[in-house]
Design brief:
This protein is of the alpha/beta class. Helices cover 23% and strands 26% of the residues. It has 3 domains: 63 residues, Beta Barrel (OB fold (Dihydrolipoamide Acetyltransferase, E2P)), CATH 2.40.50.140; 143 residues, 3-Layer(aba) Sandwich (Rossmann fold); 56 residues, Ribonucleotide Reductase Protein R1, domain 1 (Orthogonal Bundle). About 5% of the residues have low confidence.
Length: 294
């Protein structure tokens, strides 16, 4: 029987099948075969299962992934930890205000999406509070959508994006991800956190789970502290800024890093905030390599 993992709690894998929900564990032999992996499976994995008694089951096989969203493991930074498998689209959610729109986080997410070969949609939530300029992202080729859980703006359009897809919602705490998801499906009634006086959100999601919403599946994820740029290096970072790639053909040197080289066609021609964030991410990747070796 084929199914899909919607939630993982310790050694309990919640697998949804056409016959219903099974709480599964791994078959002993398969567990030994996959023991080198940090996690035996990830939320979003398709699996072959054998049903047992009382809604229990055994996972016999993890099927090949078509895509994944990963990070560095906290305890073993050189090891990949798959957060969600078989993802179709990544949504980065930012607040228009309270907390203020953060272009540093958005740029990090554009890199993350490119590094995982996933399409990205930038959602500007709380649009009833402010209308920040996002034209630099639209010009770079990113889809931007303004939403408001309070007024309902953009909710129907967002709902249409989700149909028949597996989507990941990510963004810092306090930007209204849970409120947004509740607007898409009020029956979910996700816990909504408040924003502190310092403009910092408080975490309301502490694990990853696939939720059936608007004819698709949505993974609501913890705050941005949970994510790192797996697969992105100081050498290939420039290839993950899509607006840089369009200009890089005019650089004097093929391996131009767009920092100190002469004849660079990127520096000075892209949005100032994008270039500033590029340099900041580049520096952090170099620091990461010196500490973790990759």
């Amino acid at each position: 029987m084929n199914g899909r993992i919607h939630k993982i709690a310790a050694n309990d894998y919640e697998v949804h099948t056409e016959q219903g929900v099974l709480h599964c564990r791994f078959r002993g032999k398969l567990k030994r075969e996959r023991q080198a992996s940090l996690k035996l499976a990830a939320v979003g994995d398709f699996v072959d299962v054998v049903p047992g008694e009382a809604s229990q089951g055994t996972i016999e096989k993890v099927l090949e992934r078509r895509s994944r969203l990963s990070r560095h493991d906290v305890m073993r930074p050189s090891t990949e930890q798959v957060i969600v498998a078989n993802v179709d689209v990544l949504f980065v959610v930012q607040a228009a205000k309270d907390p203020d729109f953060n272009d540093t986080i958005v740029d990090k997410c554009t890199v993350m999406a490119a590094g995982n070969r996933l399409p990205l949609v930038i959602v500007i939530n709380k649009s009833d509070l402010d209308r920040p300029d996002v034209s630099i992202y639209e010009k770079a080729g990113y889809r931007c959508l303004r939403t408001s859980a309070k007024t309902g703006e953009g909710i129907d359009e967002l709902r249409s994006f989700l149909k028949d897809k597996t989507s990941v919602f990510m963004g810092p705490s306090g930007v209204g991800k849970s409120s947004l998801i509740n607007s898409l499906d009020p029956e979910l009634a996700l816990k909504v956190g408040e924003v502190s006086r310092r403009g910092e959100g408080r975490h309301t999601t502490t694990w990853v789970e696939l939720l059936p919403i608007a004819g698709g599946l949505v993974a609501d994820t913890p705050g941005m502290e949970f994510f790192t740029l797996w697969g992105v290096t100081p050498e290939n970072l420039k290839d993950h800024f899509l607006d840089f790639v369009d200009l890089a053909g005019g650089c004097k040197f093929r391996n131009c890093s767009h920092t100190a080289e002469t004849g660079c066609a990127v520096k000075g021609r892209v949005a100032e905030s994008r270039y500033r964030n590029y340099l900041e991410i580049l520096e952090k990747l170099r620091e990461q390599r010196s500490v973790f070796g990759r």
